């Protein structure tokens, strides 16, 4: 029983990070109409940003974290205005190809600057386990879950209670109608990309102590987030978080009860099964759109 709970906690912890990445996919899909396959690379940018700020520059984590997030937001904004905004009225195929191209560019740019070697990152929250009965929970798992859920709650409040959030939702529902009503669609698109980049950056920073920091980290985590988004529903923020956590739990049980090789294939199995049997996801809307 203890082993089961241990794997469950580990799965929820990783799933919370997958959920953050998945919500980044959902935000862009709802606002832009296509999937942003560069979302995973914002995870990689976040990981390298905290590596630079904390390890190379020697800044304490309380200062390095916000600096790294600001770096992610700036890069997300620059990518939006340079690569995506010119294509806002282009067909979906061109926009989809643009997201793939941006991801390839970011990965290779980081590889040129830092090389392809993996960089270790020290533990953020310490290695002393918290004992709850016979369970031993590492602080990283606790904080991953708390921060992941906390960010989702804050995002939900922002989208539902603020003027900017409501205008973003209106833009996502019907961009042309929002434009006719006087809503600044371009501004909302920029904010959406910034928030999406920040979510990816948070996931990248929190995943650093678990994985090595490498240019291909974004590909790995992006695939996990994409699988979580499809499982939960590509149009639903809460659904994407549920999908991410579900994927994390499945992977944790796969690794714990079988092997790490089983864990590696679960995300792709989920993608395959969802596309065949549950194309709208758990909480997504059934619709027909070009991608």
TrEMBL record:
One of its GO terms (molecular function) is transmembrane transporter activity. It is found in: Cell membrane. It is a multi-pass membrane protein. Keywords: Amino-acid transport, Cell membrane, Membrane, Transmembrane, Transmembrane helix, Transport. The keyword Lyase does not apply. InterPro entries: ABC_transp_permease, BCAA_transport_permease. The chain crosses the membrane at residues 12-35, 42-59, 65-84, 96-114, 142-159, 191-214, 266-284. One of its GO terms (biological process) is amino acid transport. GO terms for cellular component: plasma membrane. It comes from the Bacteria. Pfam families: BPD_transp_2. Its main location: membrane. PANTHER family: ABC TRANSPORTER PERMEASE PROTEIN, BRANCHED-CHAIN AMINO ACID TRANSPORT SYSTEM PERMEASE PROTEIN LIVH. Belongs to the binding-protein-dependent transport system permease family. LivHM subfamily. This is Branched-chain amino acid ABC-type transport system, permease component. It comes from Flexilinea flocculi. The lineage of its organism: Bacteria, Bacillati, Chloroflexota, Anaerolineae, Anaerolineales.
């Amino acid at each position: 029983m203890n082993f089961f709970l241990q794997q469950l906690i580990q799965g929820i912890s990783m799933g919370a990070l997958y959920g953050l990445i998945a919500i980044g996919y959902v935000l862009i899909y709802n606002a832009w109409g296509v999937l942003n396959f560069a979302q995973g690379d914002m995870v990689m940018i976040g990981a390298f940003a905290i590596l630079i700020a904390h390890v190379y520059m020697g800044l304490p984590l309380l200062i390095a974290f916000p600096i790294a997030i600001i770096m992610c937001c700036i890069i997300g904004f620059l990518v939006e205005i340079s690569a995506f905004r010119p294509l806002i009225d282009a067909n979906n195929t061109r926009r989809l190809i643009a997201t793939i191209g941006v991801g390839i560019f970011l990965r290779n740019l980081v590889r040129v600057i830092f090389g392809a070697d993996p960089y270790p990152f020290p533990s953020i929250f310490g290695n002393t386990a918290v004992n709850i009965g016979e369970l031993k929970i590492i602080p990283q798992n606790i904080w991953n879950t708390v921060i992941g859920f906390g960010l989702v709650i804050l995002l939900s409040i922002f989208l539902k209670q603020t003027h900017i959030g409501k205008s973003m939702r209106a833009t996502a529902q019907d961009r042309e109608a929002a434009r006719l009503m006087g809503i600044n669609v371009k501004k909302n698109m920029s904010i959406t990309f910034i928030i999406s980049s920040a979510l990816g950056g948070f996931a990248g920073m929190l995943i650093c102590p678990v994985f090595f920091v490498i240019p291909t980290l974004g590909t790995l985590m992006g695939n996990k987030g994409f699988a979580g988004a499809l499982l939960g529903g590509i149009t639903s923020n809460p659904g994407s978080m549920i999908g991410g956590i579900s994927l994390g739990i499945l992977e944790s049980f796969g690794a714990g009860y079988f092997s790490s090789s089983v864990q590696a294939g679960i995300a792709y199995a989920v993608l395959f099964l969802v596309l065949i049997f549950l194309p709208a996801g758990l909480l997504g809307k059934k619709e027909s759109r070009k991608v």
